[in-house]
Amino acid sequence: MKKRFCYLLFVITGVISSCSNDIETSPKPLPTQSDLPKAISYKMGTYEYNNGDMVNIGFYDQVNTFNLNGNKILSISCPYGADVMKTVFTYTGNLITKAEGFTFNNLSGRTLYTYENGKLKTLTYLSIHNGLADPVFKLVYAHNTDGTISYKTFRGGSQEAEDGIVVLSFKNGNLVKKYTEYTVAPFYNYTYEYKYDNKNNPLKNILGLSLIALEGTLLFGHDMAHGDFGITDFGSNNVVEKITTIASAPNDISVYKEYLNYVYNVNGFPLNKTSTDDAQDDVTFTYQ
To answer: What is the pairing mode between strands 106-116 and 95-103?
Structure first.
């Protein structure tokens, strides 16, 4: 009887193990069209200072349109005056290896990404003028044993990193903390912390984005408002609270909090985002 029981237990365990392995090794299903972004629209406030106070004097709408091939991002564009501002992406396999920014059909910036063992190794931004590429900065990443990701910054073509190592901490695919470790104490030191909901980030299904948008946004080189085309607060879920701590001395610490509110669709993706910060713009999401 004992032998028969052991045999049955062995068979059942083997079946469970087999099913478990099938689940783990099966490719993830591709997202449906309704799970991929079509556009991110901003109702942007226009501000000026009046007696030292920032006053809203009007609004400007910006619509950022996504061009996708399956779940790969080909480009994002938005009207810019009488022309179009656009960023075009290049993949190598399933990895984003280049992003190029265009304004008035002129190439203005190029971001290059390299990887090691499927993880981001370097990010290099080049400014383009008259067809010539000038190095602006390079970030070199380290994927640490404690799960954090850190990077050093090299300005221009310098081979020497500037002071300060940025440390990024993650949980469940979301950036939860960002701070900088300095060898020489700066005048101000910033620490950023983030809390999330349990819903779906509107950009989570874009292939390769999680590997390069480590700080919740992308670097394209467009030096203007919303040159990121709405790729902000990126993660698996959505940021609901931002906590910024500014220290200028051990006993001189200021803490600022911003709360974000969402309206979701039936699939748990945001349709609208607003903020308790008066300077934060009203954001609307639409899907394929």
So the answer is: antiparallel
Q: Is a pLDDT exceeding 80 seen at residue 20?
A: no
| CATH code of 223's domain | 2.40.160.150
Global pTM value: 0.82
208-261 pLDDT per residue, tens: 999 999 999 886 655 444 457 878 899 999 999 999 999 987 788 999 999 999
Domain count, the chain: 1
Domain hosting 230: range is: 2-287
